[in-house]
Write a structure and sequence with these properties.
The chain is an alpha+beta fold. It is about 45% helix and about 20% strand.
Length: about 190
């Protein structure tokens, strides 16, 4: 598949020489077909049409409703022979990438890198992806051991152990506690 992209309902396309929005092209009165997802058992209702989009040219556009959800989502691909059976696994993989970016921003506090240099931006995101991968690998290992654990739980566990080890070093004796208090106030510990 060369291109797979979500579209908004107000995206314009050329239909028989007229400029129309997607929500005008995919009408509720047209027949909706469905497939049942293997992993969840939910029905996915869809319509598929080949349209000329202003930005991408001739594309196959899918209108998809999941289960009883009334919202219609639109996806386009430049592969004109694409079927719904090929599209759904790609959408699932795409969703995993979206959740990864969400987790990176929410749990690891990573935002965009604004250095102005392309190489530094790339390095920033590569380190982010590597850190996420390390946490996901540890999560997978824990699940293999029979311990279901989430990313936020992993981070909290890591931070707690790190802080506990740091506290044992800093506060091991009364004199060290006094020195550590001064260092903490000075930001050196």
């Amino acid at each position: 598949m060369k291109l797979l992209q979500g579209l908004k309902k107000n995206t314009y396309c050329n239909l028989f020489g007229q400029l129309k929005r997607l929500d005008e092209v995919f009408t509720p009165t047209d027949p909706w077909h469905y497939r049942t997802k293997r992993h969840s058992g939910k029905k996915v209702w869809f319509q598929a049409k080949i349209l000329n989009l202003n930005r991408h040219g001739r594309c196959k556009v899918f209108a998809i409703r999941r289960g009883q959800d009334p919202r219609i989502r639109y996806y386009t691909t430049t592969d004109l022979k694409c079927s719904i059976e090929r599209l759904l696994p790609r959408l699932r993989a795409h969703w995993q990438v979206e959740t990864m970016h969400h987790d990176l921003k929410q749990y690891f506090s990573f935002r965009g890198c604004f250095s102005g240099k392309e190489i530094l931006n790339q390095l920033h995101w590569q380190v982010c992806y590597l850190l996420y991968w390390v946490f996901r690998q540890y999560q997978w290992y824990q699940r293999q051991q029979g311990v279901p654990i989430t990313i936020p739980q992993l981070i909290a566990l890591y931070q707690y152990q790190y802080d506990e080890n740091r506290a044992n070093v800093c506060f091991s004796s009364p004199t060290r506690r006094v020195r550590s208090k001064k260092a903490l106030l000075g930001g050196l510990c």
